[in-house]
């Protein structure tokens, strides 16, 4: 039996950490809603194809910060990598560290107690805000990273930062310190994640691959975690 046909030695679970995106979904009041429509419908294509064959082609108009998104340094720093040039080692098979931040409107540096070696990791903050997805409250009340937390992360050097709320910054802070400093340190920032309670605190691997759009700095993405068989997910993120 070839190596390709053999059974893998370790089975894994795949956890999708992304929200769906659809036509006219609820989003922040200042953003345009997604527009998704056929520019060639199945009915139209059936008229010029033969034998009952048909296909669909879709046109999508969407803001870069719709749904679960990845922000890359170019968003706040013109000399930083955009979606097309973000280093793959920061996006593929990145070891995950889940940080419990439930009930913390301001996420302080005390959440890192006992959490060493964050360099090159995907540090994901579980706030529980994803339970409010598609409600007005999701956009009105959000958790954010405290200044000391931002400094700690900038020094620790993760590859990715992620939250299951809509932002890493306080909505009234127009300096946007988390996004400005963490993106400036070369990290990617993921927002509006979900299902972080299905991950172990450590041991999972994260992959997020945006389209290679030149000159674009954020985009809806599908974020997938690979959880090895036997990983302890009991009380994950708690």
Automatic annotation (TrEMBL):
It comes from the Bacteria. One of its GO terms (biological process) is L-tryptophan catabolic process to kynurenine. Coiled coil: none annotated. GO terms for molecular function: arylformamidase activity. It holds the Pfam family Cyclase. This is Cyclase. The lineage of its organism: Bacteria, Bacillati, Actinomycetota, Actinomycetes, Pseudonocardiales.
